[in-house]
Amino acid sequence: MRTKRGAAGDRIRRERQGNAVVVGASCAGLMASLALSRAGIDVTLLEKATVFPHAGGAIGGVSEPLLERITGRKRTVRDTTTDTDGQPWFAVYTRLRSAVDDEPHITFRHARVTSVGQDADRAWATTTDGNTYTGDVVIGADGHRSVVRRAVAPDKPDATFAGYVIWLGLADESAIASRHRWPHDTDILYRRNDCLLGYPLPSREGSLTPGTRRIGFAWYDASRNDLMRELGCVRDTVAHHTLAAADVPATTLRELAVEADGLWPALWRDVIHHCLDQRTVIGAPIAEYLPDHLVNGRLALVGDAGHVPTPMTGSGFGMALQDAEVLAEAVADGLDGRDMALALQRYEHARLDSVRATVHSGQRFSRSFAGRAG
Ligand SMILES: Cc1cc2nc3c(=O)[nH]c(=O)nc-3n(C[C@H](O)[C@H](O)[C@H](O)COP(=O)(O)OP(=O)(O)OC[C@H]3O[C@@H](n4cnc5c(N)ncnc54)[C@H](O)[C@@H]3O)c2cc1C
To answer: 53 pLDDT band (50/70/90 cuts)?
Structure first.
């Protein structure tokens, strides 16, 4: 047995053996790669995107100590007021990515995976540039439109559109009228058929000093599903892609500005108006996926590839982290001479009920929220 524990119960790196191919290098793929590498497994990490947008939402429940635990690195901060539970998505991504870039046992490749396969001994991922990457396992961390899921759950390959869009914006506090007193935590407001989450977030330097922070919002809107379909963001029952800020039609920006005036209190109105004026608002059609499986032989899913709860549950990141840690242990056990398929089954067994329960609870919210606008 190669696992040892330190005095504080921390896992100590195992001897190195085996290799994994991870598809997708956003939060779930980065965390899975770090956990696998820490468990002694070499990783090839494949990512199709070359640029990640700075715009976007926030991840709740991500404290500095948690990030330090996941990355194994302390942040060098000058400002000590960073003890917050919410972080802009991009800040979390950047921390994870830089830990991966520093990890010698993770090889990062820009490549789009088109298919995955397996036999009794190996699994592999094939990319558009004609390469095939082979490992003891292939891990799908390729998000809600996962290619790997097609091989794990061919009878249920697609996440479905939940029936609403979330408009997301982020503004520098200094750009908004200083008369406002911002809440310390997330404000959750329901007006008519809409819902708004507003939250202060640390500055780019990690400071929570009033005046320097960023202020974000997530506006849940079930009245623009036709627009999402017209623009190709939703096709049939599937949420395809987020509407980029530059692609939000000018008429929609104007409509949102008028609606914000009628719905939200002054402090959130000002943030929304600022982001609409700057054209930095993006529209995310929300997807959901309730899994029956997370594993097929040497293929396994983590994060949104495996299960997609509505962001209203605030739990996607935490679920991806737990997936990563449980999966890494399972793969290491599989490499320890035990049956890999059986080891991955244990991963599925450990995670499936819990992730299904979370997706389910989100679906109850979604049905009632999307139904309000109908
Ligand atoms: C609007 C919104 C708000 C959210 N708020 C919260 C929150 O407050 N708290 C929380 O815990 N969670 C939240 N979440 C969920 C959370 O962000 C995700 O669950 C978590 O980050 C895990 O995402 P992921 O890495 O699995 O998927 P993604 O972020 O979708 O990443 C998938 C990656 O795979 C890559 N990829 C896809 N296909 C291929 C391919 N064929 N080949 C190579 N690469 C590929 C993509 O480019 C991408 O980098 C929110 C989600 C949304 C949409």
So the answer is: low
Decide if pLDDT at 261 tops 90: yes
CA angle 150, 156, 158 (to 5 degrees): 70
Neighbouring C-alpha atoms within 13 Å toward the C-beta of 127: 18
Alpha carbon of residue 127 to chain centroid: 23
Question: Residue 160's CB: how many other CB atoms inside 10 A?
Answer: 20
Res 337: pLDDT: 76
State the Cα–Cα distance between residues 80 and 184, nearest whole angstrom: 16
CATH number at residue 210: 3.30.9.60
How far does residue 241's CA lie from ligand 1's centre (Å)?
Answer: 12
Give ligand 1 pocket residues (Cβ under 6 A): 23-29, 46-49, 57-61, 112-113, 141-144, 147, 166, 168, 284, 303-305, 311, 314-318, 320
Query: Does residue 2 lie in a domain region?
Result: no
Cα dihedral 153, 48, 59, 195 in deg (nearest 10): -70
| Predicted confidence (pLDDT) at residue 75 exceeds the cutoff of 60 | yes
pLDDT tops 50 at residue 314 = yes
Ligand 1 site-directed mutation target among 44, 47, 150, 301, most atoms within 8 Å of CB: 47
Residue 6, domain member (yes or no) = no
Average pLDDT over residues 332-345: 92
Instruction: Measure 239 CA to ligand 1 centroid, in angstroms.
Output: 13
Residue 77: per-residue pLDDT:
53
Statement to judge: residues 325 and 196 lie in one domain: no
Closest atom of ligand 1 to 56 CA is: 1
Q: From the CA of 308, how far away is ligand 1's center (Å)?
A: 9
Would residue 179 count as lying in a domain? yes
Q: Whose CA is nearest to atom 47 of ligand 1?
A: 49
